[in-house]
Specification:
Layout (H helix, E strand, L loop, with lengths): L3 H10 L4 H21 L14 H11 L6
Protein name: Guanylate kinase
InterPro entries: P-loop_NTPase (IPR027417)
GO molecular function: kinase activity
């Protein structure tokens, strides 16, 4: 997942037009609605895209029960 604020910031930073940002934010809203439905799956692993890459990788490893040194 990614926060709305982070997504908007990244889209602006890469130079997307207001129309492109608006369209992407509409897709983001749909994605959040789907995530609510998917959250009922007990084995669902949701990883935040707001933090550092290593944080996401560690969460995935933990979710998959992969041991790290």
């Amino acid at each position: 997942t990614i926060s709305k604020k982070t997504l908007q910031s990244r889209l602006k930073k890469r130079g997307d037009s207001p129309e492109q940002i608006s369209a992407r934010m509409a897709v983001y809203a749909e994605d959040l609605a789907q995530l609510e439905r998917l959250a009922t799956i007990p084995t669902l692993l949701v990883v935040s895209n707001d933090g550092a890459f290593q944080e996401a990788a560690d969460k995935i490893k933990k979710g998959l029960l992969i041991e790290t040194d």
